[in-house]
Automatic annotation (TrEMBL), chains A, B, C:
<keyword id="KW-0812">Transmembrane</keyword>
<dbReference type="Pfam" id="PF03807">
    <property type="entry name" value="F420_oxidored"/>
</dbReference>
<keyword id="KW-0479">Metal-binding</keyword>
<dbReference type="GO" id="GO:0010008">
    <property type="term" value="C:endosome membrane"/>
</dbReference>
<dbReference type="GO" id="GO:0052851">
    <property type="term" value="F:ferric-chelate reductase (NADPH) activity"/>
</dbReference>
<dbReference type="InterPro" id="IPR013130">
    <property type="entry name" value="Fe3_Rdtase_TM_dom"/>
</dbReference>
<keyword id="KW-0967">Endosome</keyword>
<dbReference type="GO" id="GO:0015677">
    <property type="term" value="P:copper ion import"/>
</dbReference>
<feature type="transmembrane region" description="Helical">
    <location>
        <begin position="187"/>
        <end position="210"/>
    </location>
</feature>
<keyword id="KW-0285">Flavoprotein</keyword>
<keyword id="KW-0813">Transport</keyword>
<keyword id="KW-0406">Ion transport</keyword>
<comment type="similarity">
    <text>Belongs to the STEAP family.</text>
</comment>
<keyword id="KW-0408">Iron</keyword>
<feature type="transmembrane region" description="Helical">
    <location>
        <begin position="361"/>
        <end position="382"/>
    </location>
</feature>
<feature type="domain" description="Pyrroline-5-carboxylate reductase catalytic N-terminal">
    <location>
        <begin position="15"/>
        <end position="100"/>
    </location>
</feature>
<dbReference type="GO" id="GO:0046872">
    <property type="term" value="F:metal ion binding"/>
</dbReference>
Length: 460, 460, 460
């Protein structure tokens, strides 16, 4: 069992590297540091010797046959140029570290192409998510996980052991067929953020226009007043909180929908529709967008007194009798809501999330989250209460923004309350523990059920 | 040595799963991805086949006897229903993944109950802290540690190796007796935060009432003025900084006490009283609570000019001659203190804390921490200096809040200074390096002594 | 192959610990928890038995010979006192856990001294970066990496396996010669932050003095007005943004320089000058300093309306006709810039940085970073535009601060634009893919090239 040995006397292990790019240089440096013997195969060794650590032996391509395990650090489009090494590489483990240039939906992946070229060698896909920099600096910074896949378990195991020596954490991704996914990983650009960001922007534009009509267009048309100066700050500052509150509602809406869906179906063993699944997995991102808007709203509000244009109004306002003092309360509520949201944001940091257990995570993301939603709604209610009933606010018959904004949050809060009704709640618990309407027997289920149930329903 | 083999040819390894809940489904998915053969035992295979990956074979319970290693993903209360599998499971490793429903102080744990039911099998406790979600999504998100314990080292080792294949980090927690603790882990709800949060709330309530008496009750009784409008913001804004400063002092107080205790006892080899140990381990949480209050205080102060009720006063104040301009200084000092506190908060994030070495951590948490405490105290001093000596401030003979607030911080700062006196400091160093009053010989001690000494004394 | 066995039946494995300090106590506790047999060697066992877990056997030094693997938890200066154990320790793996007292530039390291004393034993360096606390609390908190090095691969492997059992992640640092570096690690005090912090302070002092001359000295000399009250807040608030913007420019300047250097040399295979390399690796720290200043600037600006001294001006200003309302725009731009900077700051948290892939990281740090730089510059431009051309602003012939500040950012932005010119951009890409002016053939290079290229040039 060579791999085992290789693990215990790496010095005995000879690692080959084909190609002399930055990646192979960093890899060589790292392997040498781990006490492995390194042989680098190059077309023009002389030119590159200087760039490699002196412990590494830089020589011609054919030298590969000394190695037990060979890294192919060559552009995929040049794999064909290696064919003459086929005999030298036969029976060896080839590690394909290459990346695609754009996301591919179907194969063959680079690794599979390599496998086709070298049928006698066993190809392992991996290290493509690891940057040359991480290799060089050592795994202390940068992600430490290395995703591996191969059809040859022995080859994969020996690469996994090498990973561990180098201080990386190998993750077995199964057969070579998953190499396509692994090659796509470094090419994604925040796939999970697309929907939330689009939502945020759409809401922002909608509310910005809606408010402009209210605050700028209406006074201009009716009174011919020029209120353009409101665009950069006032309007923005009314728009952000609207977006924040609606987004926060959108975080908890899918959970509520899922719950009602389960109640209606009377089972949890039928999949949710895709759009709902998709939505449920995006709640964290929705929440963070909401937090960002709320934070910007806070900064903007605090800037109000700094505005030149504000001073004048300030004076006028100041002289008129100060009534409704109690309404300062809405400030306090707002600040608290923001405080809670920041807590949620902090606990959604990977490193923090990893230190809390499931119950704590649920408590913060669900219980505190609903508190934040409630306070945010309250903040808006107190602020807008008396405005709501002044006909003067209904420009062009459009209701004031905050009425629009409140619809969704209130719906979520109320339907959430509905779920707390003993009968409903009890039935929901049963279902999450595997009970089914169809037949009234209980199956033996994993104790994680309720957890996963929670997962699908009540946490960000 | 099967486990070793199992590590290198997992495909050869057959994993059994009893139960068809979400956890077993996710587990099956993950194991299949790692190239293991999976056999799922169910009472009604037909109903569940659809829910499992097609590579996994869903069959009747008895199929378990094909497996080398069996996961028991069944509610503890149904363990008894598995007894008929005893012969099939004899000699196999059984992994108990179940969780308790509430925290148990003494056993038997679920795992121990399982072990009693299957004396011929060797039970391993683990994976109960891993959510079905983490299993499914792969260990990239969610905590990667899997706590394991068992009385059978071979069984434990093979499970540990399986863990590693799946990309998790197994942590050996010793014998099955520690399964109780492992089962309790997911049930805790921020145990380390209880004391600090209670302290914060208690202090908040106390200072809030104290300030209300000063600012609202007193003017009403004496002058009949209605100052209720001060409750939501002014009072809160005077209360938060008080709490923040006292809490920050409470972070450093235990360290100072510990130091004096060690000096007095003349040794470090006698344990601290429990309350002190408890306190020392909670300093980080105390610090974060203090930071939260300080941050809220900042936001509240920045909101002051926005208050409707403020405008009127503003004008009155504005016209009166502006004296004591220098006292704007207290703002600057306050901001700096907040800046330092944020640094401390950031470095107490797990991921950041892991990247700094011991000396850096101590520097930030101790040195910078004391700077923050000093600046906070200064902020309060400058702010309240001239108020302190106006008889008018002593309503009902009660001293103004900030005098009360200053007691603790000043005590801590002064006694810390005392510890810097050469003689005291030198003696303390000796003690921390193992010197003892009792007998004046030095023992051979680990070089970590002084570190751990520091740990007990001067860092959050 | 003992190490392998030791991994699977640790109970069979006897671990010896010499020394009875805090480190050895915590180590003993941890090893016992992992099911190892622990023998502690002490000069005066009786005194220390009480301090160790009862499973551990505390006995006289000679007991070491029972152990397969011995931890030497003794101060380096006392190694000589262990010489009499030489026969007992012969052929065993000795783990040196000691730390230096100050950073050593050349050896021999403690580990090497130990190796000289015990030539028949094989010394492994490690665990010195692990605090007693982390050992005791278990690796759940604190860094989990354990750096190991040794000249004996077998010994190193068995220690690595022990590490894994204890839940730590061993990192192989090669031969014992690297023990010096490992021993220095815990002694560094933010080496990577030195330059950035010095830069920040220097810039702060410079701009603070420059502004004081403008705002305080000039009015005093010319008009005899006493503006000292401006020192604590106004001046600081003008200084911070200046520092922030210049520092942000300094983040992107080296990248631009590197690009031009590569263009000029026509190759990437010649090393950058050291100062540039050094600078390139410090960009993250420069960025965070800049963010800190920007944040403080924001807080200060928000404090302005709270200043007593402000009220008076406020009134005077308020009554004068309010013109240039549009210029409120600069507030909005500034807030956006700050928002982007916060995003950059968050993504530079280790745990977040590890979850994004290379492309995402580059997008945030490079693309968004340049947006932040652009907005910051715009913020300053709008703010200072009309002031720039008032002769009144040129006190003592010195240009107003913001003109000085703008030089660097504009240079960076413009030269970055230059790099986007198709011809230049195309040539740069070629070079980063390994093309060379000297000879026009392309070598086979790793697909990571362009990544590493990016790394050197366009991301923080």
């Amino acid at each position: 069992m060579r791999p085992c040995t290789s693990a215990y006397e790496p010095s005995a292990l000879v690692i080959g590297i084909l190609g002399t790019g930055d990646f192979s240089r960093s890899l060589a440096r790292r392997l040498v540091a781990c006490g492995c013997r390194v042989v680098v195969g190059s077309r023009t060794p002389s030119r590159f010797v200087a760039l490699f650590p002196e412990e590494a032996e830089v020589t011609h391509m054919e030298a590969a046959n000394q190695a037990d395990l060979v890294f192919v650090a060559v552009y995929p489009e040049h794999y064909s140029t290696l064919v003459h090494l086929k005999p030298a590489l036969a029976g060896k483990a080839l590690v394909d570290v290459s990346n695609g240039l754009q996301i591919k939906q179907e194969g063959p992946s680079n690794a599979q192409q390599l496998a086709d070229l070298f049928p006698e060698s066993s190809v392992v896909k991996g290290f493509n998510t690891t940057s040359a920099w991480t290799l060089q600096a050592g795994p202390r910074d940068g992600s430490r996980q290395v995703l591996l896949c191969s059809d040859d378990q022995m080859a994969k195991s020996s690469v996994m052991q090498l990973c561990r020596r180098m201080g990386f954490i190998p993750v077995d991704m199964g057969l070579l067929s998953s190499s396509l996914e692994i090659e796509n990983l470094p090419l994604y650009l925040f796939p999970s953020w697309r929907t939330p960001i689009i939502c945020t922007l759409a809401l922002f534009i909608f509310f910005y226009l809606y408010n402009s009509v209210h605050e700028v267009l209406h006074p201009y048309i009716t009174g011919g007043k020029n209120k353009l100066y409101k665009l950069p700050i006032e309007i923005v500052n009314v728009t952000f909180p609207s977006v924040a509150l609606v987004m926060l509602a959108l975080v908890y809406l899918p959970g509520v929908i899922a719950a009602f869906l389960q109640l209606w179906r009377g089972t949890k063993y039928t999949r949710f529709p895709d759009w709902l699944d998709h939505w449920l997995t995006r709640r964290k991102q929705f929440g963070l967008c909401s937090f960002l808007c709320a934070a910007l709203h806070a900064v903007y509000s605090l800037c109000l007194p700094m505005r030149k244009s504000a001073r004048f109004q300030l004076l006028n306002k100041a002289f008129e009798q100060v009534r409704r003092r109690s309404s300062d309360l809405y400030l306090s509520v707002g600040i608290m809501a923001l405080g809670l949201l920041s807590l949620l944001a902090v606990t959604s940091l990977p490193s923090v999330a990893n230190t809390v257990n499931w119950r704590e995570f649920t408590f913060i993301q669900s219980t505190l989250g609903y508190c934040a939603l409630f306070m945010g709604t309250l903040h808006t209610l107190i602020f807008g209460w008396d405005r709501a009933f002044l006909a003067a606010q209904y420009h062009f018959g459009l209701p004031p923004t905050f009425l629009l904004v409140l619809i969704l949050p209130l719906t979520v809060l109320l339907s959430r309350l509905a779920l707390f009704l003993p009968c409903v709640n009890h039935r929901l618990r049963q279902i999450r523990r595997g009970w089914e309407k169809s037949r009234h027997i209980r199956f033996t289920l994993s104790s994680e059920d309720c957890f996963n149930g929670l997962e699908n329903v009540s946490n960000v």
